[in-house]
Every structure is written in structure tokens, then in C-alpha cells.
Design goal:
By secondary structure, the protein is of the alpha/beta class. The chain has helices at about 15-25, 45-55, 70-85, 105-110, 160-165, 185-195, 225-230, 255-325; strands spanning about 5-10, 30-40, 60-65, 85-95, 95-100, 120, 140-145, 155, 200-205, 210-215, 245-250. The chain is built from eight helices and eleven strands. Helix 2 links the parallel strand 2 (about 30-40) and strand 3 (about 60-65).
Amino acid sequence: MSFKAIAITAFKRPQYFEEMLQSLIKNDLTDWRVYIQLEPSSHHERFLEIAERLLKPYNYSITVNTTRLGVKYNPYHMLENVFNSGAMCCIYLEEDLIVSPDLIKLANWYLAQDLRDVLVLNLLSGGCCSAGFISNPNEPNKLFKAKTFNSLGLVIIEQQWQQHFKVNWLRTPKHALTKNGLRFDGWDLAIFDYLLASENLYVLQPIFARASHIGKDNATHTTPEFQKHAFESLEIYSETDHELIYEICDDQYQLTYPIRSHINLRQELNDTLITLKDKNREHQTLIKKHDMLVNENLLQFLFRKSHKYFVNFKNKLINVLATKTR
């Protein structure tokens, strides 16, 4: 029998884990199973105590990996196990997020939508490696289809996992490069890259954020400076006694100008990113072709030199042998 799941990964920061669960239990978790997967550390007893204290009324389980899998493989294996166990959908959260009190209502609404051109529901509007997030309290019920993706809270249905996430999670991104031309290797950038390459695929994102990031200390890929710059003043929806009628804005002109211009700017940056990376790949291809030609010419030169040397040596040897036989 299928069920609805919440999957949480955590490592060595129980203080953030506790804040995250405190925000999560403001939702009605009655019909949801909570799965927690910990990386091995000296803090797992503290994690167990927090989970037992805050999640005792609910259906939850907590496991500790035998070896450390890392930020790429730990969530991949967890989500794969959750969906293989029969989950129809899953809310995926990391330990250093806080969520809104209407998260479950939003997720249930999402499950009832036509999702044929939707990759996933993000809980925050914006892209990977960016501080340009949208969170506007004037539009608490509206969402839009974006060409950006981030890992800061997801709602995934089983079909989306199988069709989009599972097959692309472990791939190396094509468009995501550092300023030094090196490729990033994060699963979130691999999915973002896949989204950019898929013309008729979008991410549903809320105009008023449903999650924020609080993990400024001991983070794997976030510095305290970036965390402060991106999230310190970011407001998330906090109403607990107000029923919203959620709405997807297919027409951007339904949105106020500041929001619309922000969305358009991000799309223009995405298009520029794709163009620049395509040009970079063309440039790298030309360099490889040039190197191949140089190497081929060098080999031919060396072969000609060695062949000439061999012929000269052979002729000298023949002359020496001929002289000795006289």
C-alpha cells in the first residue's frame, strides 16, 4: 500500500536538526511517515534523543549508516529506499532547514495538480549557488513554473523520482562550472543542469518561501559569509490559522512587477549561462582537436626521423659487413 513520506538526512549538527523538527511538527504529520537517515558521527545519541522527544506521537524511524556516504550518495540511497518501500511521494529535507507550518497542506495540494511538465516542487524560489531568492509576503498563495532549481526542500512524487531524479542524480553537470573552468559535482547542480537542458520541463516554486537555511556552521558546501548573505533576512510563511487557496500563475502578468522582473532576470541569466557554457564546450573541443593534430604531426615527425635513422643505420651496417667479408 502506498504512503506519503518525509525523508530527512543529517550528519553532525543536532542543534539545527532540533530547530528543523520543531518547525516541522507545527504541521499535521498524522498521515505521513518520517524517515531520518544519519551519517555516522559522535552525535548520533543526541539525534536519537531529539527525534524521540519531538516525533514520539508520529510514525517515524531513524537509522545510522555503517559508513559515511556523503552529501551526494546519502540522500540518493535514502530516497531510493523510501520509494522502493512504496512511497507515492516524499518531502526531502536536510537537517539545517526550517519549514513553514503549511508545508503539509502545500504538499497535499501539489499532489492533486497536473504535473506532466513539472520536475519537482521547491520550497524556496531560486537556483543553486545563488543568493537571489524570492520570498514576497504579498503573494502567500501563489506559485509559478521556474527554470531554476535548488536543494533547499523538495516535494517529489514517485514518477518524478524514477523519470527525472534517479537517472540524473549521479551525473556530472555539463553547464555548471567554477570560475576556473572546473565542473561542480553536486547532485543539486546535476538536476539543475538537467532542468536547463529540458525545454518543456519546469520547477514549481512559491513566491513566498516555505523553507529557509539556518546552517551557517560546519556546513559542507556553504560558508558562514554566503549563508548570512543569502538567508539572514529571508522571511518564510508563518501563519498557522489561515487557510490559503494555492494558485499556479501561468501568466506572469498576474504577478506584481518587482516579482516579475526578478523572475525575468533569472531566466535571462540562465540563458546566458547556457550560451557561455556551450561556447566554452566549443572552445574546449577546438583545443582538443588542435592538440590531437599537434600530437599526430609530432608522431609523424618522429616516425619519419626514426625511419630515416633506421635506413641510415641499415646502410652503414651493410657497408660494415660488406667490408669485413672482403
